[in-house]
Amino acid sequence: MRGKGKGMNIMKKFFIVVFMTLTLVSALSGCATKPPEKAQYIDISVQQAKEMIDKGEVFILDVRTQEEYNAGHIRNSTLIPVQDLSKRLNEVPRDRKILVYCRTGGRSAAASEILVNNGFTRIYNMKGGIIEWTTAGYEVVK
């Protein structure tokens, strides 16, 4: 009788170990197949953008046309029209925060997506664009 009881204990331990192993493998495989979260850009107000600019925290990227830029732009901004951005990514620093703006916010959102999709991680889209900027009374230069 003793031998039979001892064999049952070994079998119980074996099944417990197998069950725990399968549970662990199942849990770990669920984690391994979960896709990583996609990097995203952050929408900010013109007031937040002004604070970042005043602190010297950002590279300012204007994605409008040359004509729009000539009519008035944020001081120290760099013009790369959104349609040229994919070909000119080497002109955008990867080691700084990037503030992106356009006329009203549509093209800058598209440009922000291009940057994120190309590995840039600290992207800030200025909602409302230069229209909102000037409405707030902030300076533009020609």
UniProtKB/TrEMBL annotation:
<keyword id="KW-0808">Transferase</keyword>
<dbReference type="InterPro" id="IPR050229">
    <property type="entry name" value="GlpE_sulfurtransferase"/>
</dbReference>
<protein>
    <submittedName>
        <fullName>Putative Thiosulfate sulfurtransferase</fullName>
        <ecNumber>2.8.1.1</ecNumber>
    </submittedName>
</protein>
<dbReference type="GO" id="GO:0004792">
    <property type="term" value="F:thiosulfate-cyanide sulfurtransferase activity"/>
</dbReference>
<dbReference type="Pfam" id="PF00581">
    <property type="entry name" value="Rhodanese"/>
</dbReference>
<dbReference type="InterPro" id="IPR036873">
    <property type="entry name" value="Rhodanese-like_dom_sf"/>
</dbReference>
<dbReference type="InterPro" id="IPR001763">
    <property type="entry name" value="Rhodanese-like_dom"/>
</dbReference>
<feature type="domain" description="Rhodanese">
    <location>
        <begin position="54"/>
        <end position="142"/>
    </location>
</feature>
